[in-house]
Amino acid sequence: MPAHIQITSKASIHAYLTKAGSVLPYVGAGTGVRHVLGNDVGGGYEWTAVNGPVPRGITGIELDPWGRIERFTAVWNGAYADDALLTLLARKAIER
Predict the structure, then answer these.
(1) Residue among 79, 13, 16, 20 nearest 42 (CA)
(2) Cα end-to-end distance, the chain, whole Å
(3) How would you class 26 by CB atoms within 10 Å of its CB: exposed for 0-12, middle for 13-18, buried for 19 or more?
């Protein structure tokens, strides 16, 4: 079961990463970057995490025509995460 998070707009991306950063599997101690690729319209990287329940995943960043971040997408195997983590991540995505 893949876990897939896609967020658009600079403000929404900033808000989500600020609220959920402490529980995201690709942020914090023990995470590393395995591969990086990209071009003028965006890029991505494969990450690994040794201290959390999810051992690896992929994050992509798309840019608008002016080079600003427009879309943030993260994908990983959600089978590694328990229901509590997936629910918490979904709750952090709610904008008020």
Answers:
(1) 13
(2) 28
(3) buried
Split into its structural domains, the chain has a count of 1
Length of the chain: 96
For residues 18 and 44, give the distance between their C-alpha atoms in angstroms, rounded to a whole number: 20
> Where do runs of H (alpha helix) occur along 47-92?
83-92
Instruction: Give the domain range for residue 58.
Output: 2-92
pLDDT tens-place values along the chain, 96 residues long: 567 888 998 899 999 999 998 888 888 889 999 999 999 899 999 999 998 889 999 999 999 999 999 999 999 998 998 999 889 988 888 887
pTM of the model: 0.82
Write the CA distances from 57 to 42, 67, 73, 94, 95, integer angstroms. 17, 24, 11, 23, 25
83: CATH: 3.10.450
